[in-house]
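Entry 14. Structure prediction run on the chain below.
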Amino acid sequence: MVYHICRFWADVAVFCWGIRHKNIYEAPHNPDRPVIFVFNHISYMDIPILLKAFGGQPIRVLGKAEMGKIPIFGFIYKAAVVMVERSDPAKRAQSVKTLKDVLRKNISIVIAPEGTFNMTGKPLKEFYDGAFRIAIETQTPIKPVLFLDTYDRLNYKSIFSLTPGKSRAIFLEEINVKDTDLAEELKQRVYNIMETELVKHKASWITEQTN
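Output returned:
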């Protein structure tokens, strides 16, 4: 019910803001099979666009626990996401257990492996291991998604930088995890794929050359 409410809010908000959203699939996508979606995190606009991108597909999003402290919004946030406190090992472990339980119920999970906004000028900042450890331990495929325009629609430097325009979510090819048992190796593989695609699509926040 909470996700239905959130998706309705995203539909109304994006329309009122003059944002035209489009999903682009570079490979066939089966919404009925659980995967671990990983996306690049670059803007506050990622939240409504995330809800638009995944539509009616059952998902649970991993989110930062501190966001749950925001009045009113925090109540909805707590009901909609699996919260994680990275500074607390016990709570972090509980979040991982919850995500694994969600996957066992055939519900996809959505994780920003960068953890927070990428403010480096590079295509991506360094990834955390969590999503990739879960993928290997549960043998769940990884599916990268690129948010190409959220930085242009709302810059992370100011909530007053909102501008109308296009929004694209590019669903990349699914990555099978059966051929690796090393989270570090899988993490680097996914990072390289997403980095290459962001450079190819000329993501506007890239100001530093990649190696």
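The chain has a mean pLDDT of 88.
Filed with the rest of this week's runs.
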